[in-house]
């Protein structure tokens, strides 16, 4: 399987609607990310109550030539109850061919682009018909509307099912020092086996790395602070370096509008933890040493 070419750090735009920025401010954020080698941007149709893709597209339209320097990732498959989608009567998942095709067309229009670099199914659905999804993916690829395809939050078995019908390039998963499941449930083993680098959402545990007061979080924070001090970097940089060390070659997604936070993530590309340092964080999270 050929890996999709994304930047080693991806900028997450999911909170853009909360930033209350002008088009010019949004454009400057995009430019600053690109200047730092963060050329991939993560979206989903539902972000910001179906508004973020349009906000990003409006900014990109100010300098459309930047599109050739970036990769756009988006997701579909979740249907929210929303004034923007009055036809939705219950929060649900829809992996039908019709919904996937319509979602992509809406994303392309909102982002003001003619193609997505990667399209992901946002959540697994118990009603997913793998052959129908593959039909939709095949058509989108043939039309040039989407270059690569993947999933998000899929178990290894769910990934295997769809991958048996259509080649997938990534599984976007939750991974952080406070969420270790993918290390032990086969998710990262599968990613390494297939040479399909996983994208990682919430690498900082939605900020809980810094704010949670559980005994587990305190242990993790203390360990990260000690490592950060010894390495001369920010705590968040250590977290990103911890994720990047895994041989499945994870691709972390930032979740902040602060350029300083982007810089801290990018800095992790220069930080190489030893195996023992990595296991210090693992042990702090698990609360015991390895068996």
What is the topology?
Blueprint: E1 10-12, H1 16-19, H2 23-35, E2 40-42, H3 47-50, H4 52-60, E3 71-76, E4 78-79, E5 92-93, H5 97-111, E6 116-121, H6 130-142, E7 146-152, H7 156-163, E8 171-174, H8 181-184, H9 187-194, E9 199-201, H10 208-211, H11 215-231, H12 235-244, E10 251-254, H13 259-267, H14 275-286
Helix pairs in contact: 2-4, 4-5, 5-6, 11-12, 11-14, 12-13
Features of this protein?
TIM Barrel
Describe the structure.
- The chain is α/β, with parallel strands linked by helices and 291 residues long.
- The protein has a domain at 10-169: TIM Barrel.
- 45% of the residues lie in helices and 14% in strands.
- The chain contains 14 helices and ten strands.
- It has helices at 16-19, 23-35, 47-50, 52-60, 97-111, 130-142, 156-163, 181-184, 187-194, 208-211, 215-231, 235-244, 259-267, 275-286; strands at residues 10-12, 40-42, 71-76, 78-79, 92-93, 116-121, 146-152, 171-174, 199-201, 251-254.
- α2 crosses α4 (52-60).
- The longest helix is centred in the last third of the chain and has 17 residues, at 215-231.
- The radius of gyration is 19 Å and the shape is globular.
- The mean pLDDT is 97.
């Amino acid at each position: 399987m050929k890996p999709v070419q994304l930047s080693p750090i991806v900028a997450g735009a999911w909170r853009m609607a909360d930033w209350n920025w002008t088009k010019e401010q949004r454009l400057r954020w995009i430019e600053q990310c690109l200047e730092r080698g963060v050329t991939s941007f993560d979206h989903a149709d539902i972000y910001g109550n179906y508004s973020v893709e349009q906000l990003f597209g409006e900014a990109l339209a100010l300098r459309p030539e930047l599109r050739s320097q970036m990769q756009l990732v988006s997701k579909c498959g979740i249907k929210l109850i929303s004034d923007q989608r009055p036809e939705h009567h219950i929060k649900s998942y829809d992996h039908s061919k019709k919904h996937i095709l319509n979602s992509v067309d809406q994303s392309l229009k909102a982002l003001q682009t003619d193609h997505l670099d990667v399209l992901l199914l946002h959540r697994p659905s118990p009603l997913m018909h793998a052959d129908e999804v593959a039909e939709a993916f095949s058509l989108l690829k043939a039309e040039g509307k989407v270059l690569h395809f993947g999933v998000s939050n899929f178990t290894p078995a769910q990934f295997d099912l769809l991958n048996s019908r259509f080649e997938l390039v990534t599984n976007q998963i939750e991974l952080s020092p406070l969420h270790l499941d993918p290390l032990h449930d086969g998710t990262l083993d599968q990613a390494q086996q297939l040479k399909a680098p996983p994208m990682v959402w919430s690498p900082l545990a939605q900020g809980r790395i810094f704010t949670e007061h559980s005994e587990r979080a305190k242990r993790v924070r203390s360990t990260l602070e000690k490592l950060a001090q010894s390495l001369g970097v920010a705590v968040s940089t250590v977290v990103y370096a911890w994720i990047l060390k895994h041989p499945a070659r994870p691709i972390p997604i930032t979740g902040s509008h602060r350029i300083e936070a982007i810089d801290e993530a990018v800095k992790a590309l220069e930080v190489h933890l030893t195996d023992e340092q990595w296991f210090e964080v693992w042990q702090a999270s698990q609360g015991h040493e390895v068996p």
